[in-house]
Amino acid sequence: MAYVATRGGERAIEQAERLYREQLGTIDAARVQGLRDALPWLIDRVMGEASLYDADLAALALAQAGGDLYEAVLLLRAWRTTQPRIAIAAPVLQEDLFTHRRISAAFKDIPGGQILGPTLDYAHRLLATDVLGGADFVPVPVTPAPQAAPAQQPSLAAWQKAMGLVADPPRAEVATDDIPDVTREPLLFPAARAHSLQSLARADTGGVLALGYAAMRGYGNAHPTVNELRLAEAEVMVRHPSGVSFSAGRVKVSQAEVTSKGKSGQLELGFCATFGWNEVKVIAGATLDLNAGGAEKGSAVEEEFVLYHTEPVESSGFCIHFKLPHYVTFQSALDAMRGAAVADPAKEEVPA
Amino acid sequence: MSLSNLTRPWAAFSYGFLDPSAKREIRRKMIKAIAVPGCQIPYASREVPIARGWGTGGLQVTLTLIKPASVVKVIDQGADDSVNAASIRRFLSRVSGAGETWDTLAATIVQSRHRIPEERLRDDQVLVLQVPNPEPLRPVQPNMSIARQMHADADYGRLWLVLYEQMVRSGRIMQGAAYPALVNGRHVMTPSPIPRWDVPKLNMARHLTFLSAGREKRLYAVPPFTRVEPLVFSDVPYKVEDHTRLTCHRSGLTGVFMNEIPQAAGGSVFEASDSHLGIKAIRRAEGDAAEIGPLWYQNGEFRG
Q: Which residue in B14, B171, B257 is closest to A82 by CB distance?
């Protein structure tokens, strides 16, 4: 009878999905390639949050999601989790990075030099409206420097450690294969250092910025100075079962180190790195890392608070889940509310 | 001997979507959860192709349990054809080849968001409840690492205090759904936001219940024949929703949990929340031989 006829959920969801996909039209290889070429910074951001380094898949996810970043990251994460972990790469050392851009705000000049690299930092943000009128925007070619900057740069923190400015924290020797992996183990607190840095690496850019900015404005206890910011490429060195180490390719990485004077009388460092080039995220993330030490439980810069609330897939998913029907829980609350109205606490004798 | 002889041909996805390493981890955690009833066991909680907060925890447990011979029922707020339930059920059968059903009696696995069916579950059935927030202490302690310590210490005083304050302020306990319950006399759990009506169905039940929160990465279990006691004061009895005297305006069912449907002309009508039970009752009234199993509640009273 009418009971079933009034619903029909299965047909509704199918048509709703069609309606969405119809707007996006046919997705072909050319569209995916076009997105990859046109939006490298967006591709980088998505690869970082998905913790999956594959520009083609990232572009495909963006095409499928029509540019909805949270949808794109979920698509990639859901794909990533089904893939086997076939090898664990050797740790990437700062001095081995092929550095495109490296700046420090802490000193006017640093050993190895400041390398501006590709940036819009000093550009005037003017819309090229002529493009809409049919006049192409053609970038002016770069004039190469007479002498190329060295591809590899020393770490500034290494110099600071040698000078006794920065404490050299004791390092736990962990075999490469035993490095904790936050995608295969639950995140518990106090978190393993590897879990913290991995969580920051895959955190939501906007979320990290919001909390990092709060810390910078004064809700944190440390004011950051950018010690070193790098955009680079890292060689991914893996070991063949035969024992030979070889490069599986290069990945773009960004990393930021921020510093502030600690209570110990030495400088303290905060660090964040991620796949792809994403300066805002690593500066904000490193600021949060800097503030995490000694932060009060439940404060907006404390590690548990930060890492739980900047997870892009979890936070966005929970936010949109409020669209699901909640009428059973609501009914249960209504019942208690009506019961309370009948009970009237003023008249009711309350057992002690 | 070559590698290709030793391995299976490449496939885009494993059976039941999750890869064997993920399933192995979840199985270990499920066994642990059964061994310590009501205790929240952290697990890695892989991403699955639906959004977090939409049943990913329940889905991972179901995907780990499912086999081709399984028959799954998926309900959301009591309804089988609710859009998200339909989507999850379709996904489950698509990746596993398991059968689908709306009938509680025919199911081997029941995955549910916020309801337990009105027909009694048997010992050959597994109930998987989706959990948004696994932490009963969250209202008094939002920090998970501190709450974990409180569970270790069985430090539940502040939960009792909340209930007491409700009594003082409102003359009754105001907790709606997700009523906290002591499991096996040791761990307080949230039974997920099922109505108070459904909590007694977990106590000394014949079936196994898993509760799994994907976003929060915790799962816990109520094994068969385990005590599940809602937190109550000895002189203030546990009170389920006052639905005993309501009648479903479609099926004529009484003594089951109801949805309230506001009417334009004022007032409300009610319909059975367990939608397929409603359908079966209508079919029977029309002379169909739809079988209705024994219910947990008889004449509005829980039979225990």
A: B14
Q: Is A6 on the interface with B (CB under 8 A)?
A: no
The domain in which residue B97 lies consists of 20-135+178-226
A137 touches chain B (CB under 8 A): no
Cis peptide upstream of residue A84 (ω within 30 degrees of 0) = no
Q: What's the CA gap between A292 and A283, in Å, rounded?
A: 14
CA A262 to chain B, closest CA, distance in angstroms equals: 26
For residue A183, give how far its alpha carbon lies from the nearest alpha carbon of chain B (Å): 7
Half-sphere exposure of A62 (CA within 13 A, CB side): 26
Residue B288 belongs to some domain of the structure: no
What are the DSSP calls for B26-49, one per residue? HHHHHHHHHHSTTPPEE------S
Instruction: Please tell me which residue of chain B has the smallest CA distance to A332.
Output: B176
Segment A74-127, tens digit of pLDDT: 999 999 988 888 889 998 999 999 999 999 999 999 998 899 999 999 999 999
CATH number at residue B72: 3.40.50.11310
Q: Kindly determine whether residue B52 and residue A339, on different chains, have CB atoms separated by under 8 Å.
A: no
Quote the CA–CA distance of B103 and B80 in Å, as a whole number: 9
User: A86 and chain B: CB distance < 8 Å anywhere?
Assistant: no
- A window 14-33, beta carbon within 8 A of B: none
Residue B67, token pair as written in the block: 């086999």
The answer to whether residue B114 scores a pLDDT higher than 70 is yes
- What is the tally of structural domains in chain B? 1
Q: Do A328 and B78 touch (CB under 8 A)?
A: yes
CB A285 within 8 A of CB B19: no
Structural domain contains residue B268? no
- Looking at residue A9, its pLDDT comes to 67
A333: contact with B, CB 8 A cutoff? yes
Percent of chain B with pLDDT over 90: 87
- B19 contacts A331? CB cut-off 8 A: no
Which tens digits make up the pLDDT trace of B139-178? 999 999 999 999 999 999 999 999 999 999 988 999 999 9
Identify the closest residue of chain A to B41 by CA–CA distance: A186
The answer to whether the CB atoms of B195 and A329 lie below 8 A apart is yes
First to last CA, chain B: 61
Statement: residue A69 has pLDDT above 70: yes
**Does B277 map to a domain?**
no
Chain B partners of A77 at a C-beta cutoff of 8 Å?
Answer: 47
Q: Please write down the long-range contacts of A341-344, taking CB distance under 8 Å and 24 or more positions apart.
A: A343/B170, A343/B171, A343/B172, A344/B171
| Residue B141 belongs to a domain | no
> Is pLDDT at A1 greater than 60 in this prediction?
no
Residue range B11-50, pLDDT digits in tens = 777 899 998 889 999 999 999 999 999 999 999 999 999 9
Cβ(B83)–Cβ(B54) below 8 Å:
no
Collapsed DSSP state (helix, strand, coil) of residue A256: strand
Does any CB of chain B come closer than 8 Å to the CB of residue A56? no
